[in-house]
Amino acid sequence: MLEREKTVDTPSADHDAMALYWRTVADILGGIETMRRGGSRHLPRFPEESDADYKFRLSQTKLTNIFGDILDTLAAKPFTKEVALVDGSASPKIAALAEDIDGQGTNLHRFAASLFHDGLRDAIVWLFVDYTSNVPQDATVATEKALGARPYFVRLAADNMLDVRTASIDGEEQFILARWRERSVVKDGEWGEKMVERVRVVKREAIDAEGEATRYAPATWELWERVETPNRYPGNEWQIVDAGEISLGVIPLVPFVTGRRVGGSWRIEPPLRAAAELQIELYQQESGLKFLKEMCCYPMLSGNGVTPDKDAAGNAAPIRVGPKSVLYSPMDSNGRYGEWKFIEPQATTMRVLMDDIKETQQQLRELGRQPLTAQSGNLTTVTTAFAATKANSVISAWALELKDVLEAGFVYVAAWIKDPSEAEIFVNTDIASGIPDDRGIDALLEARKNGDLSRATLLEEMKRRDMLGPEFTLEREDERLLDEAPGEPDDDEYSATNVTPLRPASNQ
């Protein structure tokens, strides 16, 4: 087999090492149809199983997507409070950009939530700070404003990032190369459309100086596009369709990493790998049980001592079975006759499979660090609370990392527009586990009783521990308490409580 010619879209070894995980997660989150399209990658074939039998078994698969629930739940935790610029930390111009941070109407909070979700899903996601293209080098502020020129955030999915390389520059690790895919749908003729595949390359060329450490030139960019060439193997080639310089001089790229980076490579150990693998096992278990039910939902008819009818080809003719069918067992010349009976499978195997599925589901939810109060099973309260606390600390660390990434992005934004302000981002890192801490709340109530704690602080702590709903506010609670408080009786109420008896009192 001929090795494919390496081109600008050839993935790096780091990308290839993680591609299977990204594909597996994408299949899980895509639902049952993408899992089925994954075929034997997720549902292995039986030995000697025919294509027809495997296709039928694959069509009966089942997916309870606990992994997707885990991902969405964990990814939402830092965003119960709005991600925003800290008041006074940024100029009005940067604050205005934050309201439409990607140039497509997405505010900072929504962009951060998407970035966090993708980073948790794929273990890494990339933030690139770009600037409006086709702006002249010597453009004035008025010209840039007229062209709508501005910096903006771009979220680059892990699977689209083909290659990244770094080098030590001025004592710190800096990017010297990044290649990523850019796919877009364009009009094709009057009514049709087609996919255009592009690869963007940003790089800094090395400059060797004798007797000195390697230096690097200012950053440049190239945009490559796939061009159809039917007469050339493998049927296409890539051409540069646009190029230019990055006036910042550096590559404005920031990684958001939730996993563990392996050495100096860009291979990341995904934090949810174990959960994804267990989700695949659950898919196989549930699919096996469903297939077994399909095979065993009807008893099998057995004919003992019965000669089957033959068709024209000499094969046993199919037998119609049902409430309006009659099966005969003729007696032979010796007075013996056959009999029909149904063979029904035992339910023991199905009960064992159902128990295995429940155990796997429980293990999967525990891996996801979700509150397990609704499905505690054999988990003790201590085990459940420990799992939730561990998740809480991990999510807090991820939220802090997100804050650093966003602030690094705004450093590039400020550099693009030559703004001296240093934006500070608020990201909620005080994330409650979702498991009420009875001992903790008792201590708070005691402190409140002794006058060491204000009522407002007590209620805030109860809300932080998820003991009060997300809609709870002190202002609304104060209004409700005022509404419930008894008021001074008016004249009508006073007279109603001092009614003169209808009959005069007895003179006795």
TrEMBL record:
Residues covered by region (Disordered): 469-508
Residue ranges of domain DUF4055 in the record: 271-417
Ranges of compositional bias, category Basic and acidic residues: 469-483
Biased composition, class Acidic residues, residue ranges: 485-494
Compositional bias ranges of the Polar residues kind: 495-508
InterPro entries for this protein: DUF4055 (IPR025129)
Name under which the protein is recorded: DUF4055 domain-containing protein
Organism, as annotated: Methylosinus trichosporium (strain ATCC 35070 / NCIMB 11131 / UNIQEM 75 / OB3b)
